[in-house]
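Need residues for this backbone.
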């Protein structure tokens, strides 16, 4: 080969393709080929069109088999002396390259028979300096394991720098391509693990991982170089297995990407064919499984054609992102078909285009995934918004605090029979005289009135760490799980808010509203009752009944807030606000043996304006049972309210306690005198008025025979 006019700087590297002398079934030392003009030089078999396979070449009138060995020789005329390099890769063979009489590269184990033969396929590069104007290149080549014999790749020749740069660029390109495919494959597999109902990412992930594995054993044989200690035949088996697994993986991807479009029978046949090929690769020597590769490649072409047919149908049906997928799949189909046909029809070493076609497929799939993700994200946002609205709607019927107490994350996890037992404070609040008030309003006005009132009182419950368990028409039942003081402070806040609410009603020419509040602390059962198709949250405990009775007793004593001793003591309210509470009696519920101590709670801001409005006036003394007449109710609403009510109640606390003690001891005359004095100084002290009336009644008619100082409740 005459390269004397070749400018490597201008023209680049050159492949040493063309006519070489060759010697069939001979491994001749380069020294014997140096002087080809002498009579002692061996006669060549002929001219060999390097690179080429020798299968079916005619020598001595006979076609050659795939197995055999030969020597190839080429003389190269150089443009000048300098540093040069060569690069070659003879896969599935054993070879050696000589420069003059110096061995430059060697791959595998060269032999003249299958015994001791070892094939390899490592890319080899060698560099040399020469001061001569010509060089002789000799190639020893042997094949005893592949179904095609002969050198199937050319030899690159150029300056040392060019060969080195080309090798580095090839390694970088192939490594980057394999790494990209592997990374995308792992990403897709992780997507599948996170969302197992989506089978398409698993198929694409396995396909990309298989492709990445296959790529590392092509071109520069990147993986083979890394694990050079592993026998080459094992690496080639891995290469074929990766190739065999890629098609079923892609079929799996296609099958799940567009469910129902790919025939299950075709999928089953494909899996069976490639599984069989994999077993052949694992269990047979290279002479057999390399020949089986041709059959597998033919089947792959058939699968490609079937895939194109299905893709056309998918596009015609207008399925989601079908055109994008068609672009990627057609690119892959063209790349796979080109590589298979070229390897089959022109079996020389080529650079496969399939990996680049796969990149187009991956790009299309990435766009499909991005579009799906965008649509899914938009759907999730809408669903999240709908779920949030639904949750807010649920929480308006079932308080979040109720769920948290049951240890539930949300309403969907609540089951019939869920329950918890703990100590909590129960608050009952009710509107006084609502029946007569509602008779003056239409049904619509009734609902408007109740909702307007509850809109003012409800937030106060939540603001003080409680939650409303039930709306009882014109009343409220609330629970305070943390601290009894929360309930007491909430009650005071409700009374102050009612003051402002009544001010707006009075200014509008409407009657003011009066409420009663009962508070008790005790152990209760909180849970769900009903049946599987209809459940409700409820509280079951004697503490609930006690709180309800206290709220009812606010009418008897003419006060707004009544709290049990349990609530007062456990709240620490007595220590924090000693001048804003007082003991006003003991009662025993019907059928109960234990008595409940009652405390009136009043706050400094609202007591003058609210207590007197929600209390029974002194005229009730004529009603010893503690009930009041309509006239008394009217008088109560129109009574003057002294700004000194709070001060007078505080100043008379000791006197009131003495009177209560006398009353409980049955010393009614002494008690009546004390209570009467309190009422004379403070007409708005309605508990004192109540006891003055009771003392007068007992003094005149006598106390019950079993009197022990505790008033018995005959009704709620």
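Answer:
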């Amino acid at each position: 080969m005459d390269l004397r006019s070749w400018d490597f700087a201008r023209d680049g590297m050159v492949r040493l393709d063309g006519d070489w002398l060759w010697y069939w079934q001979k491994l001749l030392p380069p020294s014997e080929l140096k002087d080809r003009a002498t009579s002692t030089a061996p006669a060549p078999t002929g001219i060999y069109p390097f690179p080429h396979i020798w299968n079916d070449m005619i020598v001595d009138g006979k076609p050659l088999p795939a197995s055999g060995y030969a020597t190839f020789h080429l003389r190269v005329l150089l443009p000048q002396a300098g540093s040069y390099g060569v690069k070659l890769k003879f896969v599935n063979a054993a070879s050696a390259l000589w420069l003059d009489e110096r061995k430059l590269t060697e791959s595998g184990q060269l032999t003249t028979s299958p015994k001791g033969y070892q094939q390899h396929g490592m890319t080899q590069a060698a560099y040399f300096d020469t001061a001569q104007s010509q060089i002789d290149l000799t190639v020893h080549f042997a094949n005893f394991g592949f179904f095609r014999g002969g050198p199937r790749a050319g030899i690159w020749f150029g300056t040392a720098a060019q060969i080195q740069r080309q090798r580095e660029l090839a390694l970088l390109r192939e490594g980057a391509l394999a790494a990209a495919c592997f990374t995308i494959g792992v990403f897709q597999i992780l997507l599948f693990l996170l969302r197992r109902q989506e089978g398409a990412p698993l198929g694409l992930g396995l396909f990309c991982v298989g492709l990445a594995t296959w790529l590392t054993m092509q071109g520069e044989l990147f993986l083979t170089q890394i694990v050079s200690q592993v026998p080459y035949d094992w690496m080639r088996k891995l290469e074929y297995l990766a190739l065999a697994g890629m098609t079923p993986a892609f079929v799996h991807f296609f099958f799940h990407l567009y469910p129902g479009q790919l025939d299950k029978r075709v999928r089953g046949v494909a899996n069976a064919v490639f599984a069989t090929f994999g077993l052949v690769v694992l269990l047979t020597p290279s002479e057999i499984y390399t020949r089986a590769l041709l059959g597998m490649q033919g089947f792959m072409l058939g699968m490609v054609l079937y895939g194109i047919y299905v893709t056309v149908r998918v596009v015609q049906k207008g399925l989601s992102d079908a055109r994008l997928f068609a672009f990627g799949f057609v690119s892959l189909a063209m790349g796979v078909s080109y590589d298979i046909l070229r390897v089959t029809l022109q079996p020389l070493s080529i650079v496969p285009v399939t990996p680049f076609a796969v990149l187009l497929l991956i790009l299309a799939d990435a766009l499909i995934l991005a579009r799906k993700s965008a649509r899914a994200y938009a759907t999730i946002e809408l669903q999240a918004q709908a779920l949030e609205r639904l949750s807010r709607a649920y929480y308006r019927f079932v308080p979040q605090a109720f769920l948290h107490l049951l240890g539930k994350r949300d309403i969907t996890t609540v089951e019939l029979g869920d329950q918890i037992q703990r100590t909590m404070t129960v608050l009952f609040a009710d509107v006084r005289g609502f029946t007569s008030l509602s008779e003056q309003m239409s049904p619509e006005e009734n609902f408007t009135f109740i909702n307007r009132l509850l809109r003012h009182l409800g937030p106060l419950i939540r603001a003080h760490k409680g939650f409303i368990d039930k709306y009882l028409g014109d009343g409220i039942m609330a629970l305070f799980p943390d601290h009894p003081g929360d309930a007491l402070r909430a009650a005071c806040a409700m009374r102050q808010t009612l003051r402002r609410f009544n001010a707006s009603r009075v200014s509008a020419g409407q009657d003011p509203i009066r409420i009663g509040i009962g508070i008790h602390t005790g152990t209760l059962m909180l849970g769900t009752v009903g049946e599987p198709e209809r459940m409700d949250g409820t509280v079951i405990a004697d503490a609930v009944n006690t709180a309800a009775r206290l709220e009812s007793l606010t009418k008897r004593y003419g006060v707004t807030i009544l709290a049990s001793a349990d609530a007062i003591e456990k709240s620490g309210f007595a220590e924090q606000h000693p001048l804003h509470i007082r003991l006003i009696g003991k009662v025993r519920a019907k059928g109960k043996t234990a008595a409940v101590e009652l405390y009136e709670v009043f706050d400094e801001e609202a007591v003058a304006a609210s207590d007197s409005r929600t209390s029974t006036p002194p005229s009730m003394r004529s009603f010893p049972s503690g009930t009041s007449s309509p006239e008394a109710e009217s008088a109560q609403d129109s009574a003057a309210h002294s700004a000194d009510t709070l001060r007078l109640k505080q100043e008379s606390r000791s006197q009131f306690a003495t009177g209560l003690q006398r009353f409980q001891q049955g010393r009614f005359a002494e008690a009546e005198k004390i209570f009467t004095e309190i009422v004379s100084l403070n007409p708005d002290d309605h508990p004192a008025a109540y006891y003055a009336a009771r003392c007068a009644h007992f003094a005149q008619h006598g106390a019950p025979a079993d009197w022990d100082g505790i008033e018995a409740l005959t009704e709620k």
